[in-house]
Amino acid sequence: MVGPNYKRPVVAAPPQFRGGEPQPSNLSLGNTKWFNLFQDDTLTGLIREALQANYDIRIAAQRVVQAQGQLTATRSGLFPTVDGQAASSGYGIQSPIQHSGGAFYIASWEPDLFGKLRRATEASRADVAALQENQNAVMQSLVSQVASAYFDLLEYDAEIEYVRESIGARRDSVKLVSAREEGGVASMLEVDQAKTLVASAQANLALLERAQEQTENLINFLIGKQPGPVSRGTSLVSQRQPPQVPAGLPSSLLERRPDVRAAEQQLIASNARVGVAKAAFYPSFGLTAAGGLQTSDLLSVVNRAGGAWTRAVTLDVPFFDMGRRSGNYKTAQAHKEELLISYQKAINGAFRDVSDALVGYHKTREYNTSQQLLAETLRDQSRLANVRYSGGVSSYLEVLDTERQRLTAEQQLAQAQRDVLTSLVRLYKELGGGWQ
To answer: CB of 142 within 8 A of CB of 54?
Structure first.
């Protein structure tokens, strides 16, 4: 076969990921199966539904089937073809009209002397593999989307619970301040301030309930269902996380990431098509054979039929085509170089994605720890502020300020807990997990 044989480009992989373990091993979070990573049965059930019914998954599967059909059609050119043919005709100026007819088989074959058809088959096979990797990438993205949306939903649930508790406490505060105003101890300004706290929390609740329902609709869309409620499993704070999240060796990432694998298959296909374009400069041969029966009297075809056969060898030698072949060859080479650059870009992009995800996961965990301490401190401050106000030591403005800060800190804590889980999902995806 003429044309270059594919060799994987040499890639200078770093010894370790930035933000990863100092001495990485083959152990990586990306090797974990998704149903082992997520310990919430409700979530794993949603992911299973999505993998069966999601629209993008089904579209990607049909694209693979199309490519497989194209591979079969391309590969068929390597083998002889046999067709059947029957014909009849009549002619005459005066009666009687003369009739003739025949039945023939025609066999043809183009020997693939310089590998044009084999290179085309190689390219089609790589196209199938690339689309299969794209299907894996769609699956990987879907697992990540469903998990992230589910954790968003749990976070809205936690925030809504905080806000509803706050609304109940703030209504009790309105009653207390109103009683103090009736007793001449508090002013109407303080009553209005207490009512403001209730109204602001109720407005916050409406926004959260809107986001909650929209997230449920998103999850149902991802699993191929109509909008509706979504079941919950383990609460946000009770979600289990793996004790260790090893990144593994950067070099092994090239075998796990579907997008990198797809980019390499596209490079393999373009490399094979360079061979197809180069083979066009060489002569091609065609072999044809035909045989059958023919007759000049259709009414007595058995008695007057005779055998007929033909065979031919054709030779196509390119001489002059105004640069068509050379132009196609130049285009194929340039396309191969383009996809080589895309492959290198995909690899470096994968290394960056993992490093970003690692720092995101570690720093999000640190932020969550700090936010948890802040929320606990503000809960104590809010409780003390209410005690001080009830004892007449401080004004209601202190209660107002600490209550607002407490609710904000609790909501931010729920968001931080959610961010830890979604950053874990992102790290898992960037390490090539989720499609196995």
So the answer is: yes
User: How far apart, in whole angstroms, are the C-alpha atoms of residue 7 and residue 4?
Assistant: 9
Compute the CA torsion angle 180, 182, 188, 191 (nearest 10 deg). Answer: 50
pLDDT band at 65 (very low <50, low <70, confident <90, very high): very high
Q: Nearest-5° angle of CA 152, CA 40, CA 361?
A: 55
Looking at the DSSP assignment, which residues form a beta bridge with residue 307? 293
Separation between Cα atoms, residue 280 and residue 317, nearest integer Å: 10
Question: What order of strands is seen across the sheet that includes strand 81-91?
Answer: 81-91, 98-109, 284-295, 306-316
Report how far residue 129's alpha carbon sits from residue 261's, in angstroms, rounded to the nearest whole number.
Answer: 9
What 3-state DSSP class applies to 339? helix
Question: Which residue type sits at 306?
Answer: G
Best CA proximity match to 253, nearest among 262, 261, 245: 261
Query: Element (H or E) spanning 89, and its range?
Result: strand 81-91
Distance CA 422, CA 436 (A): 20
Q: Is the pTM of this model over 0.85?
A: yes
